[in-house]
TrEMBL record:
PROSITE patterns documented for this protein: MATH
Transmembrane spans: none
Domain (MATH) ranges: 20-160, 180-292
Name of the featured protein: MATH domain-containing protein
Superkingdom: Eukaryota
Coiled coil: none
CDD domains, A to Z: MATH (cd00121)
The organism of origin for this protein: Juglans regia (English walnut)
Alphabetized SUPFAM superfamilies for the sequence: TRAF domain-like
Length: 292
């Protein structure tokens, strides 16, 4: 179905050295294009079809302006979505795009965008094209010193960025009454442990946790030796997918002497699927290991 005609957009000129990322086409013998069309037919040239973002597109070029859209005295340039018969019923494609013309003297590309810079345009069965009826004034285009028309040739181009909805999202909620829990891990024959050890899983609310102990001494810049104890969520692989979780916690190593002093750290952290590893998402307590 033909595209709905709309009023010309207000345009502005931005210049850059970088060529269009997706498509360029060069028109040679520009002056002959108008002459090959009958007098009662509006000159128009369509580029070859190119594919971007999983869809097929073309550029429609009106060398003497699209008169029905108040483009008289201008070059008109449009981005058109193609092969729409292969798209499902009720299709629509959202895209941002830029159209370019090359200054062949300075090697610079000028892009004209509407006054809503970077606005997303919706292509659908009733609107298969978007662009500019007043893309560039003909007298500005023809003026040799501007470099747009050089040796009767010109270069146009396009960048198209298709916006696709992935359907992904997240929900954040804060509990008015936080869930609390407790785990006690008794470790026997500690001196015989040479490798890291895992506690049994324990549940707090709907999530499962575990502790991991590194019993070997770890030297630090202060010259002391420490052991490490980590807290981590352990149910990342259990469906349904789990989200990010904020928790406040205390890790404690009890001194079982009557008058002993416990070693503990109280902290808070966000636990997420992107930080599964113990060394990243697990939080640690460093305890001086008394060496005899």
């Amino acid at each position: 179905m033909a595209a709905i005609l709309s009023r010309p957009e207000v345009t502005r000129l931005i210049t850059r050295d970088l060529p269009p990322a997706h498509y360029t086409f060069k028109i040679e013998s520009f002056s002959k294009i108008i002459k090959i069309f009958p007098g009662d037919k509006e000159p128009k040239y369509d580029s070859e079809v190119f594919e971007i973002g999983g869809y097929k597109w073309k550029l429609s070029f009106y060398p003497s302006g699209r008169k029905e859209c108040d483009g008289d005295g201008y070059i008109s340039l449009y981005l058109v979505i193609e092969d729409t018969d292969s798209l499902p019923l009720g299709w629509e494609v959202n895209a941002m795009f830029k159209l370019f013309v090359l200054d062949q003297i300075r090697g610079e590309y000028s892009t004209l965008q509407d006054d809503h810079n970077g606005k997303i345009r919706r292509f659908h069965a009733m609107k298969t094209e978007w662009g500019f009826a007043q893309f560039l004034r003909l007298n500005m285009f023809d003026y040799a010193r501007n470099g747009f028309l050089l040796d009767d040739s010109c270069v146009f181009g396009a960048e198209v960025f298709v916006i696709k909805c992935t359907g992904k999202g997240e929900r954040m909620s804060i509990l008015s009454s936080p869930i609390t829990g407790y785990c006690r891990w008794d470790i026997g024959r500690f001196s015989a442990i040479n490798v890291e050890s895992l506690s049994k899983e324990f549940r707090v609310g709907e999530r499962k946790w575990e502790l991991k102990l590194y019993p070997r001494a770890v030297s630090t810049d202060d010259g002391e030796s420490y052991i490490k104890l980590f807290l981590s969520l352990s149910d990342w692989e259990t469906p349904p997918p789990k989200g990010k979780l904020y928790a406040e916690y205390t890790l404690r190593v009890r001194d079982r002497r009557v008058d002993g002093e416990h070693v503990e750290v109280t902290d808070c952290n966000w636990f997420s699927t992107s930080t599964r590893g113990y060394n990243i998402c697990g939080q640690e307590i460093l305890m001086k290991k008394k060496m005899k």
